[in-house]
């Protein structure tokens, strides 16, 4: 009987790969670990996982090991192109014994030139249930043995495991999206109360803002809202929609930054069943859902360049087609876009198309940060105090000193931060809010301004404040599972400042 000469490593690596896949819930990390295992167990110095992109009809390297970043980005293959493209097309594994000489091996990434030993390339198809998903490619040092039969078997087995994980992941992502979509449509139907009165402020800037809003509500021109995070862009977008003659129709928001690049196009324009793997049924895009209403393109500055052209043509023509379909759909939508980046700067850097910028920038509305309109702070505080007192059935007031500190603070998170702090203060307190109830990072500036403290005539205050600071730091550490960098961010401190205080107050770091 022929003895089977299979390296013991082979069993171990399959075992390790399956362990990685069952443990990791982030597919990218899992793929990275698998490629690392190939290195540790099989001495494979470079490898990659290329996945099929059905929209472009290409294979793209998604994870790699031993490849430089720039090499990885060059890894895009048409179906049938080169060895990788052929392995995918023909669904047959390939061994290239002399990739440097072999013309069918394209060496697109240019990796070969870096090895100072001879290599073979092995590619196996990643496939599950009759569906091809991609290719696993490895570079291995050439050995004397001429048959790579065992390696191919092993890599094919690993490819199946990879395919399985990828498929599960796609399904999960899809379900998550569908669920979020349904939730959003439901929320849209519940009429939200929004009127111009809900934009609080007495500053000149806010008055101008309100005047502009009233002027633009009933023209259909595109509005571009620019302002730091938390300044009220989403609020203004909803108010414009609500006051316009589209107010009874849908208001559909999409955050262009939070959706993975390859899904954004499908989200915006919808797709037909089978347009790509994972498209298990037909789905309407945001533009279609927003028909007759308003579409709110949030964080427009983060739209990938590859999609900006299509967006431009939709804005111009109000026409598009779903992915995987040739049929043109026309919609009647008003577009409101928002960005917390300076969009024109992105144009200058070549990250945003100039023509699209001008299309969007028909009516620019800039919302200034809260530090530039401090006169709005007291009235906003008043508004949120009332709101949260009502919500939590309390009657909390704010001392004058505390108010001064809140006005002096620079509010990097703008109105959202103010709203959150007030909610916390109302929830956490039962009486008047004094300076010592304020979060540590606001009050840190207080200790620098001794003269203001002295005016308060409270001899014990500094030690009281230190106690509070210590408590705040302990709370922040607890809240962040004792991850110092996170706690520092929460407290608006640098890591060094936090370390210094941990030391000073002798705070115990537990796990
Ligand atoms: N002038 C204002 N009057 C009352 N509430 C406001 C005002 N500005 C902002 N808010 C409230 O502050 C919070 C943050 O505002 P919003 O979500 O509109 O900010 P944003 O600019 O869209 O932020 P991001 O860039 O992070 O999306 C919301 O709860 C909003 O209702
Ligand atoms: Mg917003």
UniProtKB/TrEMBL annotation:
Residues 199-427 form the Sigma-54 factor interaction domain. Gene3D superfamilies: 1.10.8.60, 3.30.450.40, Homeodomain-like, P-loop containing nucleotide triphosphate hydrolases. GO terms for molecular function: ATP binding; sequence-specific DNA binding. CDD domains: AAA. Keywords: ATP-binding, DNA-binding, Nucleotide-binding, Transcription, Transcription regulation. Pfam families: AAA_lid_14, HTH_8, Sigma54_activat. It comes from the Bacteria. GO terms for biological process: regulation of DNA-templated transcription. This is Acetoacetate metabolism regulatory protein AtoC.
């Amino acid at each position: 009987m022929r003895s089977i000469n299979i390296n013991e490593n082979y069993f171990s690596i399959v075992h390790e790969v399956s362990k990685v896949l069952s443990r990791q819930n982030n597919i990218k990390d899992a793929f990275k670990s698998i490629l690392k295992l190939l290195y540790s167990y099989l001495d494979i110095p470079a490898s990659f996982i290329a996945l099929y992109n059905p929209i472009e009809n290409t294979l793209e390297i998604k994870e790699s090991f031993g490849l430089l970043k720039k090499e990885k980005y060059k890894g895009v293959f048409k179906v049938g192109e080169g060895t990788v493209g052929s392995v995918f097309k023909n669904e047959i594994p390939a061994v290239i014994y002399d990739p440097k000489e072999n013309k069918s091996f394209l060496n697109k990434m240019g990796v070969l030139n870096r090895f100072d030993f001879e290599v073979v390339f092995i590619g196996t198809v990643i496939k599950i249930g009759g569906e091809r998903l991609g290719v696993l490619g490895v570079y291995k040092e050439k050995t004397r043995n001429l048959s790579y039969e065992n390696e191919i078997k092993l890599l094919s087995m690993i490819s199946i495991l990879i395919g399985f994980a990828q498929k599960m992941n796609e399904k999960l992502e899809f379900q998550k999206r569908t669920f979020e979509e349904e939730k959003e449509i439901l929320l849209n139907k519940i009429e939200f109360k929004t009127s111009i009165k809900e934009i609080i402020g007495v500053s000149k800037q806010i008055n101008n803002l309100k005047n502009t809003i009233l002027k633009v509500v009933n023209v259909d021109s595109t509005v571009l809202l620019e302002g730091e995070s938390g300044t009220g862009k989403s609020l203004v977008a909803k108010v414009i929609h609500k006051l316009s003659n589209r107010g009874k129709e849908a208001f559909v928001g999409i955050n262009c930054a939070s959706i993975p690049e390859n899904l954004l196009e499908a989200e915006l324009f919808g797709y037909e069943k089978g347009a790509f793997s994972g498209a298990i049924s037909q789905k309407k895009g945001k533009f279609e859902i927003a028909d007759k209403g308003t579409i709110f393109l949030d964080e427009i500055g983060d739209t990938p360049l590859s999609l900006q052209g299509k967006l431009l043509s939709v804005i111009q023509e109000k026409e598009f087609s779903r992915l995987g379909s040739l049929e043109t759909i026309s919609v009647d939508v008003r577009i409101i876009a928002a960005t917390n980046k300076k969009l024109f700067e992105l144009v200058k850097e070549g990250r945003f198309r100039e023509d699209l910028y001008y299309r969007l920038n028909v009516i620019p509305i800039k919302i200034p940060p809260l530090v530039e309109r401090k006169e709005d702070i007291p009235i906003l505080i008043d508004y949120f105090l009332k709101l949260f007192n009502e919500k939590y059935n309390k009657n909390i007031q704010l001392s004058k000193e505390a108010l001064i500190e809140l006005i002096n603070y620079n509010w990097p998170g703008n109105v959202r931060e103010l709203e959150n702090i007030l909610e916390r203060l109302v929830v956490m307190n039962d009486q008047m809010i004094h300076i010592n109830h304020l979060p540590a990072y606001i009050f840190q500036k207080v200790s620098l301004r001794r003269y203001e403290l002295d005016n308060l005539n409270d001899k014990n205050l500094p030690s009281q404040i230190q106690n509070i600071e210590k408590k705040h730091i302990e709370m922040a550490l607890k809240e962040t599972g004792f991850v110092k960098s996170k706690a520092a961010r929460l407290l608006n401190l640098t890591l060094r400042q936090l370390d210094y205080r941990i030391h000073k107050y002798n705070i115990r770091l537990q796990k």
